[in-house]
Design goal:
One of its GO terms (molecular function) is hydrolase activity. By secondary structure, the chain is of the alpha/beta class. It has a single domain, classed as Rossmann fold (3-Layer(aba) Sandwich), CATH 3.40.50.1820. An eight-stranded mixed β-sheet has the order 1-2-4-3-5-6-7-8, with helices on both faces. Helix 1 runs parallel beside helix 10 and helix 5 packs antiparallel against helix 6. The chain is globular and about 60 Å long.
Length: about 450
């Protein structure tokens, strides 16, 4: 059974959550904002740290000018090692979280690329810079972050890319929240991957399908990044060398100028961390709670997109205690309806805030993974690891979905954690629980 501290905190958590959800339901008709929000004002967030001070560098990027959709990239220090040096990174302490007010000065920078620094332009041109400076030492605006040196592409480590979708019942949480920051840092360092935490738009300001569409937008953005990086490398690679005089020389100069313009444009929009160290052909989708619903939706869209997403390939997905539900209750939905933290009553309120008014249904395609006609065919889905908790009322439906995948020969194992509750590995108060530590150990071992 969960500890006494977990039980007491669960009572307090549910009381506070119920109060917030009811308030939002009462005012939801007034909340309609196409731009949306990705983090609540009451959420305690962790500032981005681009300098590897704790073993993982992070940066925030706003990727949609028409909406608040943003991402936080987590780059492990192991990416700086040469390809032949694959020693396991050292475990480092996580910095203390800061209140939201402590870094309001960074919000404007968080939501924009900003003008690239001179050193950044040089080192991001993939062949046009000296590669001596690896840190941008900017006195005004203080980026002070890692910038990949301009070295031969084969000398860089290429790490898998994990798209991570946070939980929070559609209405809370964030890619930069303290709990999500700690979770993603651990994943990046222990699993030796680049993590892209998706700050999707929250309900009720943006109801279904906003969060799902944001997940697909980030996957398409990743594909665009990979193609722009390749274009930039190709253009930069053709700048060196020369031709003889005469008309041929004039033609070369014109072509070279064109390549320089195209190459400079590519370098200005390519995210250097991903271009230098990311391997989009090894993309994994990772979702927790309602984020698992988004991950599963994005996986289906990736299957439907096929080669249109090249070179991005979704090779697997990890669904951690997914937020699945249905009109016909399962055994766990009956027996554990009043379970810890997110019980059935709380989740019903969350779904009413997320689904469009007048379309509430427990068999909505976003809620029930086993409704008929929910394409594509399950046999085309990527390998799917499902993580469930013993005391989570949603566990049986997640297991049933995994069983359906196995019936069509999809590799779909299930990991069940005893004495664990919903969000046991991602909720701030539970991050140091034995179950959460076991989860991270399994991930670091490749299970």
């Amino acid at each position: 059974m969960p500890s006494v501290a977990v039980k007491l905190y669960s009572v307090f958590f549910k009381f506070l959550l119920k109060h917030r959800l009811q308030n939002r339901i009462q005012t939801s008709s007034q909340h309609s904002d196409s731009f949306g929000i990705t983090t609540r004002p009451e959420e305690v967030v962790a500032a981005a740290n681009p300098s590897f001070a704790d073993g993982v560098a992070t940066k925030d990027i706003h990727i949609d000018p028409l909406a608040s959709l943003s991402i936080r990239i987590f780059l492990p220090e192991s990416a700086l090692n040469a390809p032949e040096s694959r020693s396991k990174p050292r475990t480092r302490s996580i910095p203390e979280p800061q209140p939201r007010s402590a870094h309001l000065d960074s919000i404007t920078r968080r939501k924009s690329y900003g003008p690239p620094l001179l050193e950044e332009r040089r080192s991001n041109s993939f062949g046009g810079g000296s590669g001596v400076e690896c840190l941008n030492l900017m006195t005004e605006g203080a980026y002070l972050g890692y910038s990949p040196p301009s070295v031969a592409q084969g000398e860089r480590r290429r790490l898998p890319v994990v798209l991570q979708f946070h939980g929070g019942g559609w209405v809370s949480g964030g890619s930069d929240s303290v709990a999500n920051d700690i979770f993603c840092r651990r994943i990046a360092e222990l699993c030796d991957v680049i993590v892209i935490a998706v700050g999707y738009r929250l309900a009720p300001e943006n109801r279904y399908p906003a969060a799902f569409e944001d997940g697909v937008k980030v996957l398409n953005w990743l594909a665009k990044q990979a193609n722009l990086a390749e274009c930039s490398r190709s253009m930069s690679g053709g700048r060196s060398g020369g031709h003889g005089g005469g008309s041929g020389g004039g033609e070369f100069k014109k072509s070279d100028a064109h390549k320089h313009i195209v190459g400079s444009f590519g370098a200005s929009v390519v995210e250097p961390w991903l271009a230098a160290h990311g391997d989009p052909s090894r993309c994994v989708l990772l979702g927790a709670s309602c984020g698992a619903n988004i991950a599963d939706y994005v996986a289906r869209k990736a299957v439907e997109g096929g080669k249109l997403l090249d070179p991005v390939k979704v090779v697997a997905q990890v669904l951690m205690y997914p937020f699945f539900i249905g009109s016909v209750p399962t055994r766990s939905e009956i027996k554990l309806a009043n379970s810890y933290f997110y019980d059935k009553a709380m989740c019903m309120l969350a779904w009413k805030l997320f689904l469009p008014e007048g379309e509430f249904s427990l068999d909505h395609p976003s809620a029930n993974p086993l409704v008929p006609g929910r394409g594509p065919p399950l046999k085309l889905m990527p390998p799917t690891l499902t993580v469930v908790a013993e005391h989570d009322w949603m566990r049986d439906r997640a297991i049933a979905y995994s069983e359906e995948l196995r019936k069509v020969n999809v590799d779909a194992p299930v990991l069940e954690y005893k004495d664990a509750v919903h969000e046991f590995a991602t909720l701030d108060v539970l991050l140091k629980s034995p179950q959460a530590q076991s989860k991270f150990r399994r991930l670091s071992c490749g299970h």
